[in-house]
Design goal:
The protein is mainly α. The protein contains 16 helices and two strands. The mean pLDDT is 85.
Length: 368
């Protein structure tokens, strides 16, 4: 089980697009609360007012992670080996971002930041409900949630019967999304009802839903994928792909949906994801290429490091380059957006890729 030889290059393109949406999300978050900038510049005002569903890309990442957790993991390996691979994959970029942010805070922003806030993130304990500290790099909550929720599902899948696993996972998906919908908007590190961490709830629901999409693919969608498709059916699949793509990105960026239910967008993404793994439409087929893979490989590094540029922009440019911020809003946002992407690419080539290669060689290859 696991180690599937079926590849999904087009999913990398979706991963890259959602990563860009998260960068825009954090830019809009930086504008919130700054009344002068937000209300006096129409573009900034529009961005803030249309950011209601901009957290959805993170939930989409959890769904993707759940699918690929079960599609590629070797469940014959022990938990120690699984956890070691996850840490090697996730932690180097997080450590780099934390160290860099502390240097930037001292040199550029001229104020130090307490490292104990980030210690929980280094220990992968940020988002399981055992700390009340908010990480100074707010986006890295995703990493500890991903690690522990993936570990939980991995171990649970190994030790219990498949029927019981399906029942428990279905309950977690339902309860997780119900709590997500009805408890209001909380910060990811916060606990609700004392013991339920908000970020972990989102992770349990999303990765669980990704599992059921994987199961559906194994049980039914593989055969559909292998069957030939008429041109009429291809056009129908293409139309559905286009509808779901436009619906989710339009509502994330422009808040066009009048009905206030974020689960509709999660369902929208789940259906779009299924269409992309089936690859029956022209869009999913065109994106099945190495360009998608090339772009997708940068997503994790961009996601982790872009918050540094966002913080510099918020804390430094707002105060010292106010004329640029107020008079050239398009250029201002474009600069921080492009810089964030370019620095993420730099991080991938000079931190993520070499560190992962080195650690795999030292801690995985030698144990085989």
């Amino acid at each position: 089980m696991g180690n599937s030889k079926i590849y999904f290059k087009n999913i990398n393109f979706l991963r890259f697009l959602f990563c860009l949406c998260i960068v825009l999300t954090h830019i809009s978050n930086a504008l919130c609360g700054n009344v002068e900038i937000e209300q006096s510049v129409p573009l900034y005002h529009h961005i803030v007012n249309n950011s209601k569903f901009n957290t959805i890309p993170v939930d989409c990442f959890f769904i993707l992670s759940g699918f690929f957790l079960f599609n590629t993991t070797n469940f014959n390996e022990n938990f120690y080996e699984f956890a070691k691979k996850k840490i090697i994959r996730l932690l180097p970029v997080v450590l780099f971002a934390i160290i860099l942010w502390h240097i930037v805070s001292s040199v550029v922003l001229h104020h130090g930041v307490p490292f104990n806030h980030e210690l929980w993130a280094v220990l992968m304990l940020q988002n399981i409900g055992l700390t009340t500290f908010s990480p100074l790099l707010g986006n890295i909550w995703f990493v500890s949630t991903l690690f522990w929720v993936s570990s939980f599902y991995f171990y649970l899948f190994k030790i219990i019967d498949r029927k019981w696993f399906n029942l428990i996972t279905a309950g977690l998906v339902f309860a997780g999304y119900a709590l997500y919908l009805h408890t209001g908007d909380h910060k990811p590190f916060e606990n609700i009802y004392y013991v339920l961490n908000y970020g972990t709830i989102r992770g349990l629901a999303g990765i669980g839903l990704g599992y059921f999409i994987w199961q559906l693919f194994n049980d039914h969608l593989k055969n559909i994928r292998c069957n030939k498709t008429s041109i009429i059916n291809k056009l129908i699949f293409t139309g559905l792909e286009l509808i779901f793509i436009l619906a989710i990105f339009k509502n994330i960026v422009f808040k066009a949906m009048s009905y206030d239910n974020k689960l509709l967008l999660i369902l929208d993404f789940a259906l779009l994801f299924i269409l992309f793994i089936v690859k029956k439409g022209f869009i999913s087929q065109v994106l099945e290429n190495n360009i998608s893979v090339f772009l997708g490989q940068f997503s994790y590094s961009i996601y982790i490091t872009h918050i540094i540029f966002r913080n510099i922009w918020q804390k430094h440019f707002f105060e010292h380059h106010k004329e640029l911020v107020m008079n050239y809003p398009e250029l201002n946002i474009l600069i921080i957006f492009v810089c964030s992407i370019l620095f993420g690419i730099f991080t991938y080539y000079y931190i993520e890729k070499p560190a992962t290669k080195l650690l795999k060689k030292k801690f995985i290859t030698q144990t085989k």
